[in-house]
């Protein structure tokens, strides 16, 4: 039986995180990005809290992090999720463990709304988000072109905090 743990991401995890991100980019179903940014750019664009990795028998198997959707104070509790599972670890339930842990940590940190943008062809990501309590709230048609020039839609998935005021609300 494999030992699965979810723990905070550290800067030392970056090489494994970047490798997994590049695997996601290669699928052409995970993101419109075509390359992985350097750590300094990635670090600056994501919140300092709520960065997690899932480890399977000592091997970093996936990661998840948040970035704020809007810098204005009124939206301080709204963040977008990035979640990626390494190619050889997909389909084993690690995504559910990681996403559920991220949602719990985000609520404890004071976030009341988490959202995720899922590309139209990414059925696995849509299923993962639905399984973890997200709901489909919208579809953005022909929002961006992929690396082949095809117009693609994205699905907006959202999860609201169970309480009107999350436990960490005052922290933000």
TrEMBL record:
Protein name per Swiss-Prot or TrEMBL: N-acetyltransferase
Keyword Transmembrane annotated: no
PROSITE patterns to which the protein is assigned, alphabetical: GNAT
Record keyword Transferase present: yes
Swiss-Prot/TrEMBL keywords: Acyltransferase, Transferase
Domain N-acetyltransferase: from-to ranges: 4-162
GO terms, molecular function: acyltransferase activity, transferring groups other than amino-acyl groups
Superkingdom as given in the UniProt entry: Bacteria
SUPFAM superfamilies associated with the record: Acyl-CoA N-acyltransferases (Nat)
Organism: Faecalibacterium hattorii
């Amino acid at each position: 039986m494999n030992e699965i743990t979810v723990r905070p991401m550290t800067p030392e995890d970056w090489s494994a995180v970047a490798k997994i991100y590049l695997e996601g980019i290669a699928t052409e179903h995970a993101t419109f990005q075509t390359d992985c940014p350097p750590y300094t750019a990635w670090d600056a664009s994501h919140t300092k809290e709520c960065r997690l990795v899932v480890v399977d028998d000592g091997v970093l198997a996936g990661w998840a992090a948040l970035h704020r959707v809007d810098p204005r104070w009124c939206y301080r509790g709204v963040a977008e999720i990035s979640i990626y599972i390494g190619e050889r670890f997909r389909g084993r339930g690690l995504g559910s463990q990681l996403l559920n842990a991220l949602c719990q940590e985000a609520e404890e940190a004071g976030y009341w709304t988490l959202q995720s943008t899922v590309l139209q062809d990414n059925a696995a990501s849509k299923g993962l988000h639905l399984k973890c309590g997200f709901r489909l709230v919208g579809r953005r048609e022909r929002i961006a072109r992929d690396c082949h020039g095809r117009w693609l839609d994205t699905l907006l998935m959202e999860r609201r905090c169970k309480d009107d005021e999350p436990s960490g609300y005052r922290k933000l």
